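PROTOCOL LOG
Step 1. Enter all chains and additional molecules of the complex.
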Amino acid sequence: MPHITFTDVEVTYPTGLRALKGVDLEIPRGQFVVIVGLSGAGKSTLIRTVNNLVVPSRGDVAIEGRSVTRAKGTELRRMRSGIGMIFQTFNLVKRSSVLRNVLAGRLGAVHPLRGVTGLFPRADVAFAHECLRRVGIPEKAFNRADALSGGQQQRVGIARALAQKPSVMLADEPVASLDPPTSHAVLRDLKRIAREDGITTIVNLHFIDMAREYADRIIGMRDGLIVFDGTAAQATDRVFEDIYGRPIDEERDLRGRT
Amino acid sequence: MAVPDPATSHAVPLRPSIASRLLNWGTWAIILALFVVSVRQTGFNLEVIGEGAFDFVRFFRRLVPDWRALPEIWRPLLETIQIAYLATVFGTLIGLPVIFLASFNTTVNAPVMWLARSILTVLRSIPDLLYAAILAPILAIGPLPGVVALTIFTMAVLAKLASETVEAVDPGPLEALRAAGAGRNRVIAYAVMPQIAATLTSYVLYIFEINVRASVVIGLVGAGGIGILLNRYLSFFDYGGLGTMIVVIFVVVLAIDQLSVWARSRLI
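Step 2. Run joint prediction.
Step 3. Record the structure below.
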């Protein structure tokens, strides 16, 4: 059975915008999938249907055959606690310590009273430190989150997701706010950890070269539909031109000049 | 996600349209008209104020503090501060959950938010002096109606102010915690509270300052504290006592204000 199954997923926002127009997709366990496409193609919407932050107006998303789309209340929260997510803007609580931010990843799992008192089990605290070690910043545990650089903040984001002990990892433009060398370092870490833990990972990316370098599988989206699905080797320049709907040389020129 | 395309967005007009200029002049005309009508109908008169100034000086010269009044002022003054303090504590405790019900990003659902906001609007539309005047005969003259009146005021004002702060927090951490499977209470405790704690404390201190001043006045309608004594001094033309009280209130309120300003400056 595939790990994640999208069945005819459609999303229409209250504004009338049709962000997804019928997506069918199966992702096997442990695959590192990169989704490419222009802004507004539906990439962010698609990955948010996996943890039901965006509720499909039609169709269904299932993890190991269990529908996330129809899950409610406690069941939904339990399913979400098994799905890590990292964000373009990191989404850390800036005024809280790094450790506290990582511990927030345990909130879906700890006992109801514990979560409110702010007292986490000793094992959780130890595990949070372990997660920080895995992303290479164990010494930052007691710094305030906003005292860290962008690359370090995204690592805290990854550590928070790891603290959930996830089987699925969603990454929405995880390196769009970072410089190129830092972007590569963060993606390398993400891929290494996904490999080590066998985490099924879906990453939205803007950059073609990075998609080719890290993806087991590339999915191209345009205008709410999947227009390409294949390996990095199959994703030629011609394919990307088709996904972006314009020649990529032109885009490179634009990037070089500005 | 949807980025506006500069090519298709509307061009900026070079000068305001006739409609917007008319609106502008219309606004000024309304402000002026309301001013003229208000002056006429209230009988606002600078001459009378000028004459009154002489009376005021004469009145003021009689306000020589009689320090023998000090012992009887002391206890009701303490009661006034205690009324303000209790009302601030109760109002904050009751108001805290209401803040989150009234904020779109932390509420339970739309009808609950609407209900919370409506109740707050109704409560805020009634002045605290009126609450005290209504409650004093019901709850017996004394500090209790004062505490209840100012508790209602504290709750309504705090929830209104703070829910605006809650609605302005960075939504990112809220989304992140929801994505991690955290329920509403945990999202509030871990993503919202750290962002609003300093501002919230500052509001509470500020409302305490307002409550101290308000609890002086509500005593006039029988809601406990120094206002009851103030009422007696005024009715019996006890200028010595009145003078003493004015000095004492001035010093105490100023001290509390300064303390609160200092505490708030250390928060942000």
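Step 4. Note key features.
Confidence is low (pLDDT under 50) at residues 1-9 of chain B.
Chain B touches chain A through 23 residues (CB under 8 Å).
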